[in-house]
Structure to design on (253 residues):
């Protein structure tokens, strides 16, 4: 199980330190689940100082694909590695929507991250209109194949897919277990078909209004290998509860 807290554009460095400390007071490590915090760039260093002596890992919310150069305002993979990041979230729907990120650009970022030892968490998901017009599967297939173009089977071991239906993000309306399971099954199948990766070893997590009151149900599906949590990760108690549900379910599996 992998539980990732995406702070989005919330928390200064000092606020982030407090949030992390409050979460750690409630967190009990279990080797069956990985916990990852994704603060904004400006809080990465401060949060890393706190989690470096714990099993909690760090993710960035974005990266640029060049290693260095005249790219004002951008952050490179080696810079994130240097800050202690293990993961990077890529292709989040907010980046696709507000920053016009295409599958092609996301693919360049995925490959650059892999080349520098960062594990990508590639977000895919359909809008409400796409779901209602029956395009969910073809759209996700396209996001996967284009976003992961030229990624080798070996590199795929480092890639996590986050299924995040756009209509579920920040809306309080999570996908049902059945809806998520159906899409996760299709994603696992595509990965197996394209990269020959056993469907039991690829990792597909769910994101979209995951809260303590729906996490347990979602995690009970063997196709859901964890969660990308937005809003609820800003509350240490909620995030710790979600983590403990994941750990409990992982114990049974
Ligand atoms: C997200 O930011 O990826 C997300 C899923 O947000 P929320 O949990 O708030 O819906």
């Amino acid at each position: 199980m992998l539980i990732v807290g995406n702070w989005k554009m919330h928390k200064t460095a000092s606020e982030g330190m407090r949030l992390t400390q409050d979460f750690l007071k409630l967190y009990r490590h279990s080797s069956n689940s990985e916990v990852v915090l994704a603060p904004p760039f400006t809080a990465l260093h401060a949060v890393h100082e706190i989690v470096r002596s714990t099993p909690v890992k760090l993710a960035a919310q974005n990266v640029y694909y060049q290693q260095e150069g005249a790219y004002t305002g951008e952050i490179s993979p080696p810079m994130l590695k240097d800050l202690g990041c293990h993961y990077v979230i890529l292709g989040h729907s907010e980046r696709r929507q507000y920053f016009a990120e295409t599958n092609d650009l996301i693919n360049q970022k995925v490959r650059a991250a892999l080349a520098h030892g960062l594990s990508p968490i590639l977000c895919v998901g359909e809008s409400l209109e796409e779901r209602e017009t029956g395009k969910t599967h073809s759209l996700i297939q396209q996001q996967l194949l284009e976003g992961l173009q030229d990624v080798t089977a070996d590199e795929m071991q480092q890639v996590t897919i986050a299924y995040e239906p756009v209509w579920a993000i920040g809306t309080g309306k999570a996908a049902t277990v059945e809806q998520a399971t159906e899409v996760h099954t299709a994603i696992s199948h595509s990965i197996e078909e394209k990269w020959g990766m056993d469907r039991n070893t690829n990792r597909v997590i769910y994101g979209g209004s995951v809260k303590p009151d729906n996490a347990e149900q979602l995690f009970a599906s063997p196709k859901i290998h964890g969660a990308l949590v937005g809003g609820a990760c800003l509350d240490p108690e909620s995030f710790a509860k979600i983590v403990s549900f994941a750990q409990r379910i992982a114990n049974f599996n």
In short: The chain has eleven helices and eight strands. The pocket of phosphoenolpyruvate is lined by residues 6, 8, 164, 169-170, 207-210, 228-232 (CB under 6 Å).
